[in-house]
Amino acid sequence: MEAPLFTYTLRLADNALVLGHRLSEWCGHGPMLEEDLALANMALDCIGQARNFYTYAGEMEGKGRSEDDLAYLRDCADFTNILLVERPRGDFAFTILRQFLYSAFMHPFFEQLSASKDERLAAIAAKAEKEMAYHLRHSAEWVIRLGDGTEGSAARLSEALADLWPFTGEMFEVDAAERALIEAGVAVDPASIRPLWLETVDRVFADALITRPKDVWMQSGGRRGEHSEHLGHLLADLQFMQRAYPGSVW
Amino acid sequence: MTEKNMPLWEVFIRSRTGLSHRHAGSLHAPDAEMALQNARDVYTRRGEGLSIWVVPSSAITASDPADKDTLFEPTASKVYRHPTFYEVPEEVGHM
Q: How far lies A112's CA from each of A103, A189, B9, in Å?
């Protein structure tokens, strides 16, 4: 049971770390000071979640790997995040729409995970749930304002939707090991999140005057370590210090 | 970012139950809901807040600095309004 739970926890950590890094790329580049801080706050929430999951994964593995070892000393193929979170940050509409699609899934996901039979996962999820509730609220408000805003903002939002939608399918994938964890009451069945996610998406999209694409072929692979070239560049930035100066601390 | 689409809002934060809201600063936001969210992100990052008010800056009527003498000078000669003419009995302790 330990190896599947390690993989499960690592996936949660990798999603949070990679998305947190993408959000952090806005620091100092936000469209306005208020949003610069909002994006940095959300980045810090995600990185905090990643730290909790990595620490737990490392302890569970029992090989003495710390949160830093797992974040900074693994290569692309070892990362198990979904492809959605590694897409380059794009423009503000792209970043906000991705945050909306992700947090509309992760908020109910963490809500359910906080009832997990695994106490550590449940405790981390209970904290993360409040954070994702805010990410969802903030990103949804912006999706509505961009979609129902100016011609320019609506066009950018539509373009972001066409780019991002094929990456949403991976959130609902389940492999055999994860199926066993779901049946044991440890993991969350993403199929149970789907109706909630669709309801949120449709409600917000209706106000944003955009429609959900139908019958789109879905991208897949990140969860198995098959990544786009973008993750390599992201890790080069993220891991540079530990690679160049192993063991450095400050 | 035009002033019309992103008007200015004044932010008031209450730090503890029982205290009053205090002016924390201002920010730009498209509407009241986003102003509240921005206020949360800009002014409560270090656990400062329990409650937030946002008010459109344009809704505030301010006194004219040129009226300073008319408005405030007359009180300068009324020192008896300050509670400094009482002897506080020792048993009262700190007030």
A: 14, 9, 37
Interchain CB contact of B2 with A (< 8 Å): no
User: What is the number of domains present in chain A?
Assistant: 1
Q: Is residue A249, in this structure, part of any structural domain at all? A: no
Q: How far is CA B93 from CA A166, B83, B87, B89, B90, in A?
A: 72, 16, 12, 8, 6
Judge whether A152 is closer than 8 Å to chain B, CB to CB: no
Prediction pTM value: 0.89
The tokens describing A111, both together, are 């809500």
Q: Is A130 on the interface with B (CB under 8 A)?
A: no
pLDDT at A1 over 50: no
Question: B6 to chain A: nearest residue by CA?
Answer: A32
* Interface contact flag, B38 A38, Cβ < 8 Å: yes
Band of the pLDDT at B95, cuts 50, 70, 90? low
Candidates A34, A130, A141: best to mutate against B (most CBs of B within 10 A) is A34
Could you tell me if residue A250 is inside a domain?
no
d(CA A238, CA B63): 52
| Segments forming the whole domain that contains residue A24 | 2-244
- Which domains does chain B possess? 8-92 (3.10.20.520)
CATH for A206: 1.20.1260.10
pLDDT (tens digit per residue) in A152-181: 999 999 999 999 999 999 999 999 999 999
Cβ B37–A32 below 8 Å, yes or no? no
